[in-house]
Amino acid sequence: MLNKENAEYYYSSIQNFISLNEYNSGNIIKINSILKEILLLITQDELQIFPSNFARIVFICDKYKINNKLATMIRQAFYTSKNLKKQEHDKLQNIAFLNIKAIVNICYFFTKLEPSIEIKNICKKFDDSSSLFAIKEKKVVDVLNASIIRKICSEKAFGFDLISEEIGSFKLFLIERFNYLWKITDRRNILNLIRIKKASNSQTIYFADSGSIIVLEPDLLLDITEIAESVNTNFSFQITFFTNLLRKKELTREMLVGSIINSLFDELLLNRNIDFETAYENALKTKPLVFFAVTLQNKNNSNYLKEKAFSQFSILKKQIEKLNLEKFYIEPSFLSPIYGLQGRLDLLIENTEDSSRKDVVELKSGKPPQKEIFYKTKDGKTISAGCWSNHIAQATGYNLLLDSIDEKRSGSSLILYSSDTESPLRNVPNHFSLKQNLLEIRNNLIYYYSILEQYILLFFDRDFIRTDTLSKFTKEAYFQIFRSFEKSDEILKEYLQYFTSFIAKEIKAEKLGTNGTNANNHSSLWRSSIEEKRLNYNVLSNLKLNRDLSNLELLHLTFEIDEIEGNNSIFRKGDMTVLYKDSRLEEANPSKQQLFKSSVRNIDNFLVTISLRNKNIPADYFGSDDIFILESDYNESTSKSLYSSVFELFRTNTEKQNLLLGKSEPKFDLIQTDLFSNLNENQRNIIAKAIAAKDYYLIQGPPGTGKTSVILRNIVDYLFNNSEDTILLLAYTNRAVDEICTHLKRIDENFPFLRLGYKDNSSHIDRSISFIAETLDLRELYLLIKNTRVFVSTISSALSNSEIFQVKKFNIAIIDEASQILEPHIIGLLCNVERFIMIGDEKQLPAVVLQNRNNCSVVSPLLNEISLLNLADSLFERLLRCAKLNNWDCVDLINHQARMHKDIQELANHLFYANQMKLWEEDSTQTEEHNFFSKNAENLLERSLAKSRLIFINTQTEDILKINNLEAELTIEIIKLIRTKLGTAFKEKSIGVICMFRAQVANIIKMLPDDLKESILIDTVERFQGSERDFIIISSAVNNSHYIQFVQSVVNIDGIKVDRKLNVAITRARKQLIFLGNEEVLSKSEIYRNMIDFIKGKDGFVETSEL
């Protein structure tokens, strides 16, 4: 909650802003970000996730009874701070003053703390915001975003009391076709109101009529394919989404036929003269594991697939010849936050003479209707089409996407039934009633997702789910799930309830951000300005294509990073991204153009290379003067696969259920302790026990103990050479998986293993199945996979390539960095292996959770009995607790570390490890004297650094958010000094700089000499886990104790308070640790105070005055 200490800091920030006397858009965004932070602070303990800042404002004003004048002021501060590019220069000062006044008033409302006289005078300069709101009076409102205050129910009509940023409070009355909304909405739901009409005799009454559209929670974009699957034969809603989420991914030959036909279609579009055999081979190679899984089901499936593909190949070829393909896009992506939709079309054809004419072609390989079908819309209209209802819905959704880009768009919406020899191309009418029907299905889907978030058990209530309205396929899938649920015990049902709610909230947070403020979320793509995204380091803008360095044929594009802007982004190799054009004339709007899904191949401070997922882009798209924008993207399908992962526990046998739930003790075979004579006793015992595990084994590995390089590597080496086991090696990140691959090659450069996943995400591309598939024929590839016994994968790739479990039977899985993996990510995978070993350290960085950890607590005696206390914990942590609680002998700790000097080890032992860590017995460098710097040097900085291997430099606080310039300058001085001292011995692993805030990372990088930018890693602690450097410099930039909560990750483990972020930060150092921060501020934290006191005891405390 907002307190006086916070308010003092915000007043200080305002004072600093006023002293600048610069009222430009960049500074306004910074001051508006303070207002956002205040609102987040007020709502940080709320259980709900807010879809927008506006929704949060409505909540706060309602809960705390904030007066109308202040509520209006806050709303208007946000409203006027949007699209600052369009604002006239003389209005920018007023917008700045409005934001300042809103901050001051809300701080005073909650704390009663008076600001300074100067701030009060600034507030007096701005007493009226009416000049900023020149809203044109319209009888029909194009789009209005509003929040429901209450529902209205009268004898004559249903409706809502609403409030919007733009027009304040008003009433909306509904015609009958919208009455369903009254049943599925709730207080504080957000609505997009499109083409509503104002009453002629009132300023505050509006009507939704037959020409209106209403969209529920529009920032929660739903995929058009998912909506179409929810359409029944009579165009009514059905719960297909629920069965799709929970059912096991089944591979049928019909599904694979559809995938093959789509690939053939793409191949023909790119090369009209391609022969069937080549196109078919290429199609199978796009998903070889799926092909192998299906053909292993039945030996006749291979012939069936080829016959089906061949019969449709000639039809596709003929139909493509009829299309005007002068300019076309394969699988273009669009989104519409107006209609709450997103989608990827099969084919978009653009007319070269009329850019508004765009034809959509959607390919369907299944059986088409034999005759025209008549559908009755909700408003009584009859529409005829020769297409199935779900296909009509899909085409209608694409029409809406294109409508939101270009209101004047014209063109056909075609379904291509490739199995039909007579009339394969069929038109879907672009009818307004169909669009209303589709959005009603979408709104119902949003409602049912909200139920899933709250109480999944309702879906197993036969009174709630009317199975008589379901299609045959959906009904069969539902009852299959229902039977598995019905025969399960109460603990499993409770487990399902808690985790499905958790997953739903995580997906919501991915889309909307944590309480609507986190800039790194899907909705920030259209909600946040480029300036805001720069402040959050979530964008690269002003990118120019370098054609000489790009491979346009493979769509590997290299862009030059703007010299002034620099690379301050969060992007790293393998990250999913989205690319779009910058119009430069006004604020770039990704919802008004095509988006190009991509991933980062390489990135440095000057260039970024991405790989587009599109298969074709017209040659004229990349103009010589065009500039581009790159932002983060996310894969919702991976997140949604977690529902099925959790439900996999219902499908496995009781013995496996009891083991994974922690209800039964894991067993071991006879342990051979005479193996691995080259290792120490602790390592020998752990590896021997891992080999003997019949169910599972947990290995705790503190920093630098060789979890991957020694333990995992030796386990794999032994199992490969002394058993017939097929081994699956898993980790959460691509970096961790690459590390595993590196150590497997150290067993032997030709050690046989394969890697799942996208080839561009790996540094070991030679072992990537997707890369190898390009060079081998299918039989050779199958034999390679069949004969390979070691597979490596990220958790995400294993979930999305689950067909591997139908091709291979895994005897053992070894999960590295297991403490970083949430239970839903791993539980389903473990149901498909005989035994597993988890290696991790619960005292290092935890799994990434977007929700407030405090809101993830489990209040269930049943689940608490199996040590499920917090949903944000990893399965590794929960099983550790089970083992300790029951005194099971299935956990051991690697206690020798080979990274840190003993002085640094002592700090980590003192703070977090209770002296459990020991030195690697053979490494004398861990005990040598500290003589790198001279105690008699003329340079005062060098003399100070010579005092101890543990240094704390006490810096002064500054009135800047998350930045400390003195710390940055000192960091640069220390880097230069170390480089000079090292001379020719300076290398990439010599120095690392860890910052608590991304803003300080950018600050230091800007100050760093160009010749050092490629040699020194400067990043946040999250990016450093698994890394090490000889010298680690930590710049805290914590200028106010309020921000300590943002730099810590504190948990209580075995009675010890552990700050997992600080633990990782200090244990990256091999030879020396140098910490920069303000003692007074940091000492407000007990853990930081203990650290500083320990360093003082080692004579490592330095005042800046000494330098």
Description:
By secondary structure, this protein is α/β, with parallel strands linked by helices. Helix content is 40%, strand content 18%. The protein contains 39 helices and 39 strands. The strands form nine sheets. Strands 25-26-24-27-28-23-29 form a seven-stranded parallel β-sheet, with helices on both faces. The protein is globular and about 90 Å long. The relative contact order is 0.06.
Sequence-ordered SSE layout with sheet pairings:
Layout: H1 4-20, H2 25-43, H3 53-63, H4 68-80, H5 89-111, H6 117-125, E1 140-153, E2 158-164, E3 168-174, H7 179-184, E4 190-198, E5 205-208, E6 213-216, E7 222-223, H8 224-229, H9 240-246, H10 253-270, H11 276-286, H12 288-297, H13 301-322, E8 328-330, E9 333-336, E10 341-344, E11 347-350, E12 358-364, E13 373-376, E14 382-385, H14 389-405, E15 413-417, E16 425-427, H15 432-454, H16 472-486, H17 490-512, H18 524-527, H19 530-535, E17 539-545, E18 556-560, E19 576-581, E20 596-603, E21 607-612, E22 628-632, H20 636-651, H21 654-661, H22 681-692, E23 696-700, H23 707-722, E24 727-731, H24 734-747, E25 754-755, H25 769-772, H26 778-787, E26 790-794, H27 795-800, H28 804-807, E27 810-815, H29 823-830, E28 833-840, H30 861-864, H31 875-886, E29 891-893, E30 896-897, H32 902-913, E31 918-919, H33 940-945, E32 950-954, H34 965-982, E33 991-995, H35 998-1007, E34 1017-1020, E35 1029-1035, H36 1044-1047, E36 1050-1053, E37 1056-1059, H37 1060-1066, E38 1069-1077, H38 1079-1082, H39 1086-1097, E39 1101-1103
Helix pairs in contact: 1-5, 2-3, 2-5, 3-4, 4-5, 5-6, 9-16, 10-11, 10-13, 14-15, 15-17, 17-20, 20-29, 22-23, 23-24, 34-35
